[in-house]
Write a structure and sequence with these properties.
Blueprint (H helix, E strand, L loop, with lengths): L1 H24 L4 H56 L1
Helix pairs in contact: 1-2
């Protein structure tokens, strides 16, 4: 999960740096720059929403797997307790 957060952080940093470089290196009129910023903002927001959904789905999957592991361990513990009690 940490790797996903790290990748997302690098993605976001790259998007910000790319937008800043584009503004500094590509002289455009104010109208064109505002249009570019709007488009870039929309794309970044959509990417963040998609990443958020993916992370939420992975979190749910991890929760479900963890819950199953705990249930299985509880069942094994109970069976072992019954065997020891005889």
């Amino acid at each position: 999960m940490d790797e996903n957060n790290n990748n997302f952080t690098w993605f976001l940093a790259g998007a910000v740096l790319g937008a800043a470089a584009a503004l500094l290196l590509a002289p455009k009129s104010g109208k064109e720059t505002r249009r570019y910023l709007g488009k870039t903002t929309r794309q970044t927001r959509e990417a963040m929403e998609s990443s958020g959904r993916d992370m939420m789905e992975r979190g749910k999957d991890l929760y479900d797997r963890g819950k199953k592991i705990v249930e299985d361990a509880s069942d094994l513990f109970e069976r072992g307790r019954k065997l020891v009690q005889g």
